[in-house]
Amino acid sequence: MPNLLDIFLLKMRHHRLIGHGSEAGALYIYYSSRSVSDPFSDLQNYVNSLRRIEYPVDELEAVLDRAASGNNKTVIIAMVNKAYVKEAGGGRTMLDLFLESFWEGEGTLPLLDHLVVVAADQTAYDRCRFRRLHCYKMDTEGVDLEGEKVYMSKDFIEMMWRRTRLLLDVLSRGYHLIFTDTDVMWLRSPLSRLRNNESLDMQISVDSSSVGGHPINTGFYHVRSNYKTISLFRKWYDMRLEWTGMKEQDVLNKLLDSGFFDQLGLNVGFLNTTEFSGFCQDSPDMGAVTTVHANCCRHIGAKISDLTLVLGDWKRYKASRVNSKWSPHVECGRSWSDAHYIPKL
């Protein structure tokens, strides 16, 4: 849309140049269908006409707008590729388990209306559309993100940075977001917990609630859109060029330790593992747990196996309301020593 000052200067240029060649005539024909005696009136009328034009909305904005409806401009974002939506040997997929957790959770089913599934390839996008979710196909030009990206592989790191760039775009559009990996089981709605303290700009999960540090995990976090968080995400994404070969989670940890959060005046909260738990540190209280993340696990096959047990534990708890221990995460423990594992294509 033309800038007011630019239009005004063109108008003034027209009045100075009438009678001095064809360029002035062209300007006169374009801007002067009315009398030129009142250029400011013409300018205002022209600007008003521009404001009545409906400019096209891009696909991402349209998806975000639908998903944020009725939810305080907050969206839940998850990212998948072919490996997360295709069955292995006729079994379940990671996306299956993720969506089932919303069905089995308490107060979680309505949250699917606010979920945006970001697809890294066409297969994932088609599967998302088949499930009638809010779907967006991410731009992956120049890189293949289709198959399984094993933890800390080159393609895994690239996928994490592409994700960070997309989330920066979402925040820059004025949307608050909850990012969740699809290996996070949503057993209770986290919204009241996350919105309880509006002074916090960002709340992020941790691998363990230990004394003397916060080993953050970017598999689940809540971010409010404001100038501080947008500045953080811009800096975070730019640092990939300085700290090459590092995954985005480690780079964010470095920014936290360096005092950059304090420089921005950014208030951050760390989500305790009693409510926002994971395989690194189980929640001791099924009556309080909100999410369970298959962190400290290397590959998709192991995650699917152990998360299936998590959902079984949760169903038994719902039926009895008796707190008990979670099933051991055996396959995820073995995943670190599985030298013969072949990633899903």
Automatic annotation (TrEMBL):
<feature type="domain" description="Nucleotide-diphospho-sugar transferase">
    <location>
        <begin position="111"/>
        <end position="307"/>
    </location>
</feature>
<dbReference type="Pfam" id="PF03407">
    <property type="entry name" value="Nucleotid_trans"/>
</dbReference>
<dbReference type="InterPro" id="IPR044821">
    <property type="entry name" value="At1g28695/At4g15970-like"/>
</dbReference>
<dbReference type="InterPro" id="IPR005069">
    <property type="entry name" value="Nucl-diP-sugar_transferase"/>
</dbReference>
<protein>
    <recommendedName>
        <fullName>Nucleotide-diphospho-sugar transferase domain-containing protein</fullName>
    </recommendedName>
</protein>
